Amino acid sequence: MSTATAPTTHRWTREEYHDLAEAGFLGEDDPVELLEGEIIRMSPQNTPHAVAVRLVRRVLQRIFPGDKYLVDEQLPLALGPHSEPEPDVSVVEGQPRDFLDDHPSSAVLVVEVADASLQFDRTRKRTLYARHDLPEYWIVDLVDRQLEVHRRPAGTSYAEITVHTADETVSLRDRSIAASDVLP
Hints:
This protein is an alpha+beta fold and 184 residues long. It has one domain (44-182): tt1808, chain A (Alpha-Beta Complex), CATH 3.90.1570.
């Protein structure tokens, strides 16, 4: 007689995730991300979300020199064997050809633009980014029109969290950024 086992959830690896895409089970334009072994369907981007992504990218490109950093828009980060998020904007040290073998495994700054995903970005994404020691994580909160800045990863969260309204500024690399510059 065989021994029965309780049902379990399969935790996908990055390799399996890529295999699913190559086999046609996930389309290139499917709004999905691999987070901690789960394939998460993300909601489509509305116009304010797209505008905020463009604004953030423009601001960060002025601060991070292109000869040392990439300011990427919705490109994968390889965070361990079970996660491959695609932050709305990320700042990665290096040049494009530095990543011919694999996606970047770290970022100086990651930014998520949030409306419907606000709670998800404050919990699952923040936990993921903190656990992988990403030094700075921003949430452009479209619901309350504010910028959340998370700094100094500490376990599954960040030791320093500040919230900036549209009429306030945030400091980044000895520069002041008006929160309104990243809000649509």
